[in-house]
Amino acid sequence: MAVYTEVTDEALRAFLAAYPLGALRAFRGIAEGVENSNYALQTEAGDFILTLYEKRVDPRELPWFLGLMEHLAARGIDCPLPVKARDGQALRTLAGRPAAICTFLAGVWPRRVRPEHCAPLGAALARLHLAGADFHEVRPNGLGPAAWGPLLDRCRPGGDAVQPGLVAELDGALAGILATWPVPGALPTGQIHADLFPDNVFFLDGPEGKPRVSGLIDFYFACTDLLAYDIAVCLNAWCFEPDGSYNVTKAHALLSAYQRLRPLSEAERKALPVLCRGASIRFLLTRLYDWTATPAGALVTRKDPLEYLRKLRFFARAEGPASLGL
Amino acid sequence: MAVYTEVTDEALRAFLAAYPLGALRAFRGIAEGVENSNYALQTEAGDFILTLYEKRVDPRELPWFLGLMEHLAARGIDCPLPVKARDGQALRTLAGRPAAICTFLAGVWPRRVRPEHCAPLGAALARLHLAGADFHEVRPNGLGPAAWGPLLDRCRPGGDAVQPGLVAELDGALAGILATWPVPGALPTGQIHADLFPDNVFFLDGPEGKPRVSGLIDFYFACTDLLAYDIAVCLNAWCFEPDGSYNVTKAHALLSAYQRLRPLSEAERKALPVLCRGASIRFLLTRLYDWTATPAGALVTRKDPLEYLRKLRFFARAEGPASLGL
């Protein structure tokens, strides 16, 4: 939940004057998203989301993110479409921050994932990967395998305070992951979301009351990386139960629906377990870093890093792709 | 900013099924309000606010609050109107909490108060008081003068850590306030909002671009108390500049617009300075209590109690009603 930057009404009015959106009707901070400040904006033209990009986002990368969303939306993906101001620019400045208005997407993110969510999720992920295939600008994954060692180093001083022996366990796990990580070119690469957690996927009731995906949001970790790594992120984020168990029914639904649109290669299938371990350690490390670095009393919700230690251990024990639902 | 209770989609759907509002379209946590969990809810019938009442609100008092809002809305006050379910009940249960859906109010609360906001505010406050005159159910002010001594006692252990000498200064100030507080019956009494801070007042552009009040929200401190005390709360909340100075232009605009609709009696005018000191100490004490009692790392924004010490000192020095803008 986050509103880091307050916007005065005068500044907002001046900002909106650049857009062909009519008069302001409502403006409320949204208690979702942890990286940026998000506001629900209502004007005479309808509902929008206004995002102010906070310090974790590099302003030089914003044109890539907005360009990707525009590209995907043009290909029928239900993602936020950046709204251009009268001068043709979508990326502007408000309250001293880079800022953009995007279209509002209907739908509700699932607070509790059910198996019925996982097939539509898998299909939406495959469609996202296919739609991104002709977006040719590359953004390296700043939180990919090359970043995990340095990130672990930054957690070294405080890591064992979270759990005794944690740093040594992660040293061993990371070495194992990096030793078997797919070499460049071995697996299909493209534009991935890289953070497709439940709170970034909206659903509405489809035919017969079955959930259908109505929106994918928050593309600010998107990058150019292994497509199957995006699946591994989703298996981590969607297929564990609150008690820590892996729900292979959910995973199978996700993977099957994905493969109906983009079948995995044999190399991708074989690599899936290590990609899952990689995704576990990526979220483990950023959470661990936030946990050790966030000042007590800060407004940001600190997420439990050990949730991902349990997932990492599960994937390390898993015996091959079949046990993951493939 | 607050979403304390997460609502699963199944629970939300089951809850909504009791209402004649059509299918769910969107549901987002709102990063505003500190007492309850608020969600922007969109259904086929339009925009609404769903509130889950958290532990600071006594469930037995909710019918009073909802009844007052219904009463005021029926008399033309732009306040949230509780939406009744098909069984005629507006107050229900969701995720183990009392919950209600209210109408959505357009408008934007002023992040920076300008003098032009204060006349419409004063008029809106007077209209609120007049509209409440025939709502006869009494709710005593749980944070009125009788509560301040016990509240100060609870701040005694930690108060001086916030500022040395603070507790002794507040002991002296409170004794002075209570010694000159109006006796029961001396001033007009009625239904007051009691927390009409800028984030509880929405504005839209009116004729010639001048702000007009489009909504008053968050009635969960409302109670039956001195009407002029509500004015004192607003003078505290709206008429100080960020540098701590009292803006008599704003105060005069507020008071004049109020008096055009409900002129103050001579007794109310004379009492205004002590009512202002009372309002200062009321917010000072609740903030001080929250400051000393909130665990470090909690998600709630702790508001600076010393802001209200400066206001209290200003009102204590003020020489009569005229210096307050009357």
From TrEMBL, chains A, B:
Domain named Aminoglycoside phosphotransferase: residues: 27-264
GO molecular function list: ATP binding; homoserine kinase activity
Entries under Gene3D superfamilies matching the protein: 3.90.1200.10, Phosphorylase Kinase, domain 1 (3.30.200.20)
UniProt catalytic activity: L-homoserine + ATP = O-phospho-L-homoserine + ADP + H(+)
The enzyme's E.C. designation: 2.7.1.39
Keywords: Amino-acid biosynthesis, ATP-binding, Kinase, Nucleotide-binding, Threonine biosynthesis, Transferase
InterPro entries, per the entry: Aminoglycoside_PTrfase, Homoserine_kinase_II, Kinase-like_dom_sf, Pseudomonas-type_ThrB
GO biological process: threonine biosynthetic process
Membrane spanning stretches: none
Pathway: Amino-acid biosynthesis; L-threonine biosynthesis; L-threonine from L-aspartate: step 4/5
Class in the EC hierarchy, top level: transferase
Family, as annotated: Belongs to the pseudomonas-type ThrB family.
Name this polypeptide is given: Homoserine kinase
Organism: Roseicella aerolata
Taxonomic path: Bacteria, Pseudomonadati, Pseudomonadota, Alphaproteobacteria, Acetobacterales
